[in-house]
Fold this protein.
Amino acid sequence: MKNEYSFVAIFEYADDGINISFPDLPGCFSSARKNDNEEALKNAKEALGLHLFGMENDGEQIPNPSFVFDFDLSPKQVPVLVDVFMPTIRASVKTSFVRKTVSLPAWLAAAADERHVNCSKVFQDALIALMK
């Protein structure tokens, strides 16, 4: 696995926004609001990172990227070189939170609420301690 990747994204400027595709990575798409290049680049980086992360986890071979000049584009399309730093992507995906439902006696839940106890934090701390 590489730490950095760069792929060409095609930003297509339409009346309703910016459509983003990666010709080398079928199924990798994103979009942004009309005339918002900053959002388009941010969304392109996120889509690229998550797509590559999925390919890595599925054991798929990541293709060699094409060159910016390899594409025959329409006047409303612009090639943009998008780069991602995968250690950041991998860490953010692996530290995402999931919802777990727990059951507590009503009196204990009420006492925790009265004391403004963050039950999620207590549960996390207890599980971390248990894993040690």
